[in-house]
Every structure is written in C-alpha cells, then in structure tokens.
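Mods, move this if it's the wrong board.
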Amino acid sequence: MILPLSIPSPELQYLQLGPFRIYFYALCIIVGIIIAGIWTARRLGQRGGERGAVFDFLVWSLVLGILGARLYHVVTHWGDYFGEGKNPFEIFAFWNGGIAIFGALIGGAIGVLIASRITGIRFWSFADALVPGLLIAQAVGRLGNWFNHELFGGPTTLPWGLEIESTNAAFPIGLPEGTLFHPTFLYEALWNILGIIVLLAIERKWRPRWGTFFALYLIWYGVGRAFTESLRVDPSLLFLGVRTNVLAAILAIVVGIALFILRRHRHVGLENTVYLPGRRHPGDTVLADTADTNEYYHVIDRGDGTSVSASETEALPDASLEPASGVEPSKTH
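Not the wrong board. Structure tokens:
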C-alpha cells in the first residue's frame, strides 16, 4: 500500500554517456570519498600534520578497502556466486552492487597502516582525524543503495516506508505488490549524521586522542549498524542463527570498548605530535636538516658580484674595525 509520505525508489540507476554507463551508486561512493578526504586533510593539518599526506592514505585505503569490501560481501553471500546455475566470475562485477562496509573497514585499516609507515604519521592519529569524514562518507554512500533498490528492511506500515517493485530479486516471496519496507539506508545515513554531531561535541569537550576517538566511532557505528542489519531481509550468511553483519556490528562495539580502555591506559598524556618517533612534518624537516652550519650555510652577497660562505667569513678581520674606503682613521687627541 502506497502512503502519502512513502519513499519511492529512483527510476534511474545510471547515466548513459555514449558507450559509458555511470552508476549513481558509484557516484555516491566517489562523492563520499572526496568529502572525507578534504575534511580529514583539514583536521590533520590543524594537528600539525601534512595535509597532502592524506592522498597517500586515500590511495592505499581505497584500493585495499574496495578489495576487502568485495571479499567480505562474497564470503557472506556465498550462494549468490557459487553453486548450480551461478556464475563465479560475477564476484568481479562489483559495479552491480555488493560491497560490505565491514570489509572496507578491515581492508582500509591495512591500507592506513601501510600509508602510516610511508608518511610517518601515526596510525591512530590519522584514524582519529578520519572519524567525521568517514561517517559522512558512509552516509552519502548509503544513498547508493537507494539508487540500486537494495538492502531494504522488512515490511512496515510506517508512513515513510520504502517502495520496492515486486519484480526486484530481493522482494520477499508471498508479499503483495505495493508492500512498503523499512528504508534501512536512510536509518543508517541519519544515524551517521547524528554521530558526527555527537562525536564532534565529545571531541570539543574532552579531546580524545591516541585512537580513543576512533574507538568511540566503532562503538557508535556498531550500535546503529546492529539495529539496521537486524531489520534487513536480503539473504545473508548466518552464524548461530544470527546474520554475520549483526555479529560484525557487535564485534565492532566490543573492539571499540576494548580499544578505548587500552589506549586510555597506555597514553595518559597529551598527543603533542601526530608523527611517529624520528619522523616529522616535511616542512620542519628541511629546517632541521639544514640547521648544521658546518654543512649548510647562507651565501653572503658582498655587492661586487662575488660571494663568500659563512665559514669563509670567519677568516676575515672584523669589518667593524676596518675604516671606510678612502677615509683616514681618526686620531685620538
């Protein structure tokens, strides 16, 4: 039954530009990544880090995050790709949908760890700076599920129910056409936006650092994801009768709590730098490395087209004791 405030599913899922087909699902993910990258660069720069280093983190985490997201989805939806009548090569068709945020977090974390070693920026410092950008990226990315008509919840009579065509492969068998479903994509997007507001308020008041801010993200996101996952009706791998994504959300909460306690216990002081020991901002590195006057020195212009190094000036007599050219020294009377 279609209600006045029900949410229609978009009729368009992609743009056709000549031979190229651009899916709105992909555009949502790209926009989310761009926003997250800009926001994280700004936050990292405010903490004394190099803003440009975000590009290194972005490349590594994006590549490994996509691989992890797809692998996690395939493993938890094994029957969709393997078995009688299935095409195993579909596992590579990620543009048709089917990536999992928990897999993206795992793969992305490995990418961040690699980038951390390259740039010298602490893993947990970057993770803390990433939190609000990550939440907004996930919120924008969830709109892609709306365009793909996927990952909706169970039937509902709420006025904001989601309209899904009965020809949809995920439409539950036995339900009449016109049945409305929980818009879980919207629930999660709103939860993430609320998380940005709440977590930034916490950060302004208590300034959690050393990875504790990221721990709070895991707890917040895990709570919301456990709720939305429990509403979904699409097929998923079950473990002990529970959807694996629900278990992953609970695990995120547990890991977040443990991480918060451990990091708070290990680091009780202020985070004075986002860099690993022995590493520093490239701009500061130039000044520090050239501070040795025995190896680096300024060139002094003598005004006659020649120059002399600072080390050579030590051998010259004190210029303040020499008379000006053409002027006889004064005599004491």
